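Entry 14. Ran structure prediction on the chain below.
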Amino acid sequence: MTAVVETEGLTKFYGTRRGLEDLTLEIRPGEVFGYLGPNGAGKTTTIRLLLDVIRPTSGRATVLGADTRDPRVRARIGYLPGELALEGRERARNYLQFLADVRGGVSRGRIDELAERLDADLSVRMGELSKGNKQKVGLIQAFMHEPELLILDEPTSGLDPLVQQEFLAMVREARTAGHTILMSSHVLAEVEHVADRVGIVRAGRLVAVEDIAALRERAVRHVELHFDAPVPKESFEGLPGVRDVVVQGASLRCTIDGRPDALIKAAARYTVVHMVSAEPDLEEIFLTYYSEEEGRHAHAGA
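Output, structure tokens:
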């Protein structure tokens, strides 16, 4: 299967400042790819290179099997920029209808359906839109022509939690329809429930690409067990992947790195009456990547 996005050695310097260096990446057809990193890491530079808004210093990139400079590719992409400039006295509905007419094949009903899902008021003039409503209009224009590739830069910025959930449902539906989504974010929780894979970028360099399923395998969990009688702490110390063990009478709290198998087998020797396991904390894994990369940079500079 031909990659929807493919880069090889993609590099962009702004004078002497590194925006992106040596990015080699493939995004597969029909996947949601989370592109993660702190602000200023190189995410937006990557997106601008893919959209041919800026040109690379070196390296190459293809999108939907074509060179990024091919103008025919643009119509097959839906794009939400990180900073959406919507100004003027024109009403949001008229702006979206103009875009629909330019792209062709977008019905007024499609715009209304998306506006209803996102609770967007399209009667407001563009210059008077709040941050959240600008974001909603941006999402409508990105999704409305059902593009083969969606490129979304910080897509939930300014959205309330209910609208965020509706947006994530739209992403899942686009993936089910066979479309590909590149979602850039500095917040892991924003993408972890919809992404198939994530790439981590820091200081202009890609430091890791991981399957979400593999991350969950290694994820940190906080677990609490309650027994029908007090248990000895020694039974749970030194278990593989189990740390921070605290035993108070008949209750035990601990942290698990990766699979809980060793803890479950140890607990099975006693009578468990209640168990609480928090959602895997993938954020801790990403913080580990960032700190390891910082350590490598510090060591290299020493």
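Residues 4 and 64 are 5 Å apart (CA to CA). Will compare against last week's run tomorrow.
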